[in-house]
Amino acid sequence: MLKYFKLQELVSSSVYQRFGENSWMFLDPTTLAGLDILVDVMTAEFGGRVYIIINNWESGGTFQHSGLRTWEELQVVYKGAKKIPLSLHLFGKAFDIKCYFKGHYLDSKTVEKAILKNWGKLHPYFSTIEEDPKGWNHLDNRYLPSIDTSKVPYKVPLL
Ligand SMILES: [Zn+2]
């Protein structure tokens, strides 16, 4: 159980319809703990409650694939791409976050700056971010045994 997120925000409607509360089993506990910490870190950084939006399909929003993705959903997300990447979203270890603060969404570059500034608090839970974010910030907890990500995150290109 998380402090700030419901299961429906972390999986798609099709996964939730099929597996219900059992959908927790597909998500990585370390990465999940990081999401709650991220809310606290952002709230402290911006000096007021920051809401982190992942999926919002349950409340009628359009975000559906920002958390766990099934293989079928990955085909939809990367429709038209030459190659479908093997995504950390498939393993419940990646989330695309949108930060909402005082009535508007924070720019993803501003969010990235805050993530980098507070990386020391986030590192045990996340190892990687997508560089040059546009519209959202991708964070994941991929295992990188030969790379030290304790000071700065490993950066991957936006796919
Ligand atoms: Zn992502």
Could you give a short description of this structure?
This protein has 159 residues and is α+β, with helices and mostly antiparallel strands.
Write structural notes for this entry:
The structure is a single chain. The chain has 5 helices and 6 strands; from the N terminus they run ααβαββααβββ. It has 159 residues and is of the alpha+beta class. Strands 1, 2, 3, 4, 5 and 6 form a 6-stranded mixed beta sheet that branches. A hairpin with a 2-residue loop joins β2 and β3. The longest helix is centred in the first third of the chain and has 18 residues. The radius of gyration is 15 Å and the shape is globular. It starts with 12 loop residues before the first helix and ends with a strand.
Task: Outline the secondary-structure elements.
Blueprint: H1 13-19, H2 29-46, E1 50-53, H3 71-77, E2 94-101, E3 104-105, H4 108-117, H5 119-122, E4 128-130, E5 137-140, E6 154-156
Parallel strand pairs: 4-6
Antiparallel strand pairs: 1-2, 2-3, 2-5, 4-5
The structure holds zinc ion.
Zinc ion binds at residues 89, 94, 96, 138.
N- and C-termini, Cα separation:
31 Å
Q: Sheet bearing the most strands, described?
A: 6 strands, mixed
Specify the helix fraction band. Answer: 25-40%
Radius of gyration: 15 Å
Quaternary assembly: single chain
What general outline do the C-alpha atoms trace? globular
* Coarse structural class: alpha+beta
Tell me the number of strands.
Answer: 6
Name the ligand types: zinc ion
Q: Averaging pLDDT over every residue, what do you get?
A: 96
Q: How many individual helices?
A: 5
Low-confidence stretches: none
Order of helices and strands: HHEHEEHHEEE
Q: DSSP strand (E) fraction?
A: 15-25%
